[in-house]
Amino acid sequence: MGPASSEARADRADDVLALARLAAEPESVRAILAWLTRRTGGLAALIGPTGTVLATPEPDPGPDTPATAPAATAASAASAASAAAVELRRRGAPSAVLGGEGGRCVHLVRLGHGDAAGGDEPPYLAVVGPDDPRCGVLLADAARTLALCWRLEEAERARRRVESAEAHSREAVLHLLMVGSVPAAQRIAGALGPALPALARVYVIECPVRRRREIAARIDQVARGRAWIVPCPVRSNHLIALVPPGPKGEGEKERERADGLARLIVQRVPECRIGTSAEHPLRDTAAGYEQAIHALAVARGAPLRYAGFGRHTDTTALASPEGRLWALELLGPCLRYVPPRRADPGPQELLGTLGSWLSFGGAANRHLKIHRNTLAARIRLISDLLGLDIGRSLAGQSTAWLALRLHSAPPSTAETPAETPATPAAPAPAPAPASLDALLSSPAAELWARAQFGPLDEAGPAAVPETVRAWLRADARLPAAATALGISLPGARKRLARAEEALGRSLLRAPSAKYELWLALRASGSL
């Protein structure tokens, strides 16, 4: 054998080693195509059997890169490769050198054989431009490596599609639970697995995005595959988990078990913060989520980095028959709304939008999966229907929030008066709808209002509760509150953070307790 033959074998060995090295890189298909483009001096591309351009070289600013051709020239080369791939498929040949458009040669090699199981036809490796007989050997070697890399990337894309579809389905289950559609959520969850637990404690884990998968696997392991885990659709650094309780009759042990799971997570991922709710039935998942968010606000400043929800104040004191009628009257224009077009949102969708807006503010578009302009248009429509400024006014938002709570309250709670005679002599007349001020002036409402601010007033110093009151009077706008108090913006934020710890509630991040506190402030006459 002559020196030329030895040199050719050495070059081929170097090429095979280079291909093996490129196969281990991220986006190996594009990397190999870029290497072939430099190696041959032509354009390398991956073409589908119908002529679709599947992949082209990634930009390479290195010194070996040939002079950049105009975009029109590159498009022309890709067009020639597509036409040649369609022709080769028509012939049924695995490889060929065809004359492309403009007299350029197109070297083509099919990447393997058709998929017997799925019937998918393999793509073609095409190199446009070089008129070198040695190009065929190079493409044959490259095709074997490229075929494996392509199948791996296709498998990874398929895995991501399946994972994305499952994540969206799980997110849909969570959304259904949040709006109280338990049967529909159970049907979807039953198909995905695991089945939803009848009782669950809600965990909200604030963590780096890259650690969510690891934390989810740990929760699933500890819960023995019975937890329902969903990445938060609104905040990318939140993970939501519905964890079922242990055996019945182990109340104290269950609390220790919940703390143990949170402790285990923060030990493995120290940058985590975890808030947990009390146990709730599925129909109260939204309440459990709010409790976990409030506990998370406390956990951010807690030495253990996790906290459970410890306060159980709610709007039950306001859920009288008069309150329910007031809510029905206030929401009536929205409930009776008839959309002018079929594609426009109806009453239930508008109420869902209102609830999401009050819970997540500007992030509600991510929760509802709608454009932010669509969200803004719906909020304007709801404001017009209700006669409230729910876009900017805390008073309007708090009024709408209370109306939604009373409207969705179970009849056993909302329709039972605070004091019912043991044996009524005659059916009581239907109560007349009350005003908001009348609802908030009842003795039960006054007790409820004092309970809202009680922990804050007892914790001291006085500057902290005064900052909260100034913040509420300023429509929950921190800069305006800081100006009214004559303090700096960071100083006002620190005071509100201390208020969160004292109240055990979230103020600065949604869902916030600002609506309840504003109503309590109005009930106490401090506005």
Automatic annotation (TrEMBL):
Region (Disordered): 411-434
Domain PucR C-terminal helix-turn-helix: residue ranges: 350-405, 466-523
Coiled-coil segments on the chain, per record: none
Record's compositionally biased regions (Low complexity): 411-423
InterPro entries: CdaR-like_regulators, PucR_C-HTH_dom, PucR_C-HTH_sf
Database matches in Pfam families: HTH_30
Domain of life: Bacteria
Name of the protein in question: PucR C-terminal helix-turn-helix domain-containing protein
Species per Swiss-Prot/TrEMBL record: Streptomyces bingchenggensis (strain BCW-1)
